[in-house]
Design a protein that fits this description.
about 260 residues; alpha/beta; Rossmann fold; 6-stranded parallel β-sheet; 11 helices; 10 strands; binds 2'-monophosphoadenosine-5'-diphosphate
Amino acid sequence: MHNHWFEEEGIDGKYVPFEIDPNRLEEAVRGMKALNFTGWNVTIPFKEAIIPLLDQVEEDAKLIGAVNTVINQQGKLIGSNTDGAGFVESLYEKRTLKEIQQSSILLIGAGGAAKGIFHALAKLEPAHLAVANRTEERALSLIQSIKTNKKAQAITIRECEKLLSTFDIVINTTSVGMFPHVENMPIDVTKMKNCTLAADIIYNPLETAFLREAKKHGADTLNGVGMFVHQGALAFHQWTGTNPDTDKAVSRITKQLG
Ligand code: ATR
């Protein structure tokens, strides 16, 4: 995706993968800095571990406790997290800010991905925001760790099934339904009676069983390709100052995965 963007934007750059020994992260960061890399993305299992190795971490990433993007500004390493904002950017393809603010939104899952999305959504102040997780304590600790202007709700998946008909937008942030366990679903979709939009952050498969069934029950759907592309575009913008063509990237990746 990034290499396509470099080409499209006429930028002399390369995006390459590096597998790093977990015991040598500090050395790797020093090496990348010495080689004067413009920036990089950070993925599992280093999103938290890299924080103390950076010179500065943006507020959002600090709050979430995870960094996915680093920019090297004349030797000063600055960390941020574009995952949550990337999700919100993809949500804007389906809903305006005003519509989001009038919506009752349910996030399923309370892991790392959920935390970033919760924070980004809470900033938009939807009418209601709830987090449902298999283990309630984790949902509770998520909503307590992130300060919001409006009160958010933490519930168990079981409890949430009783309330499912009260949500307009339901977002799956868990790994339930990801390849190869493609028939698994995070909740009982038949109870999502008034849901107009079901979103999943999974992009393999492109259409999870959750999205397929939600569609059968009348909801519009949003798969994880948009979030993937937009989190990347936000990072690309930090490194290059340009806004890459995200629509083209969504079509290209959808074709590749389809
Ligand atoms: P990530 O950083 O990708 O979000 P994570 O931190 O491991 O990954 O979080 C995974 C999320 O998926 C959690 O909300 C987890 O629920 P628990 O906190 O109860 O473990 C959820 N999850 C994973 N497998 C699940 C399953 N089989 N049923 C329900 N929830 C599941």
